[in-house]
Automatic annotation (TrEMBL):
<dbReference type="GO" id="GO:0047936">
    <property type="term" value="F:glucose 1-dehydrogenase [NAD(P)+] activity"/>
</dbReference>
<dbReference type="InterPro" id="IPR002347">
    <property type="entry name" value="SDR_fam"/>
</dbReference>
<comment type="similarity">
    <text>Belongs to the short-chain dehydrogenases/reductases (SDR) family.</text>
</comment>
<dbReference type="Pfam" id="PF13561">
    <property type="entry name" value="adh_short_C2"/>
</dbReference>
<protein>
    <submittedName>
        <fullName>Glucose 1-dehydrogenase</fullName>
        <ecNumber>1.1.1.47</ecNumber>
    </submittedName>
</protein>
<dbReference type="InterPro" id="IPR020904">
    <property type="entry name" value="Sc_DH/Rdtase_CS"/>
</dbReference>
<dbReference type="InterPro" id="IPR036291">
    <property type="entry name" value="NAD(P)-bd_dom_sf"/>
</dbReference>
<keyword id="KW-0560">Oxidoreductase</keyword>
Length: 250
């Protein structure tokens, strides 16, 4: 029996790389994509050290032809796509309240966080229809379930991801294609580190909004993504799994 195959967009760093490693350690063939070739090749080496078969494909998820190429190269190498993780995303600029924020920032967020996810879903679904099924996991956020001050535009982009997830899950529920999302709380990633270094936030203030009073790790999220994407959750579709240290329980 051939190993199953997962694609993780934005798989070179942070949550994406941790997710790729989680699937690799569970016997999957792993394909990661990203815009930085050097980071991609470094992550690829680390993934292969687990013994998994792996591939890096340079991809800009805002370019539909790039996404088509990602799908095509994966199928050429591994035949089918069993799991597709739409992880690539950006946080955008912190510009203050909505009336002080820019159109360009909003457009940039939607290009990557929404249009990029749409392209990934669109072409993964087509491939999974041919294969008779599969699983898609989209990266939402607690900002896709709540209103977060100073982040209206980011919230809008992640609410859109939740909408895409739920509607598509219903559309393809009888075709063997499960579509779920994960909503991380604040996670120790390079994006968050940059926000802290810019003076926008401190680690203490971010941790304090979570009942567990700590930031999450990339492994916390990767484990949730693996659960949603794998055969461990066969009766779950259209669900948004909050992995947030209790944030949404408040």
């Amino acid at each position: 029996m051939e190993n199953k195959t997962v694609i993780v967009t934005g798989g070179s760093t942070g949550i994406g790389k941790a997710t790729a490693l989680a699937f690799a350690k569970n016997g999957y063939n792993v394909v990661i994509s990203g815009r930085n070739n050097k980071a991609g090749e470094e992550a690829l080496k680390e993934i292969k050290e687990t013994g998994a078969e792996a591939l890096f494909v340079a991809t800009d998820v805002t370019n539909e032809l790039d996404v088509v190429n990602l799908i095509s190269k994966t199928k050429d190498t591994f035949k089918t796509i069993d799991v597709f993780v739409n992880n690539a995303g950006i946080a955008g600029a912190t510009e203050g309240f909505l009336a002080d924020s820019s159109e360009q920032n909003l457009r940039s967020l939607f290009e990557t966080n929404v249009i990029g996810v749409f392209f990934g879903m669109k072409h993964a679904i087509k491939s999974m229809q041919e294969a008779g099924g599969g699983s898609i996991v989209n990266l939402a956020s607690i900002a896709g379930l709540n209103g977060i001050p100073y982040a209206a535009q980011y919230c809008a982009s992640k609410h859109a991801v939740v909408g895409l997830t739920k509607a598509a899950a219903v559309e393809y529920a009888t075709q063997g294609i499960r579509i779920n999302a994960i909503a991380p709380g604040a996670i120790k990633t390079d994006i968050l580190k940059s926000a802290i270094e810019s003076g926008s936030y401190s680690e203490e203030t971010i941790a304090a909004i979570h009942p567990m009073k700590r930031l999450g790790t990339v492994e916390d999220i990767a484990n949730g993504i693996y659960y949603l994407g794998s055969s461990e959750s066969p009766f779950m579709t259209g669900h948004v799994l909050a992995v947030d240290g209790g944030y949404n329980a408040q």
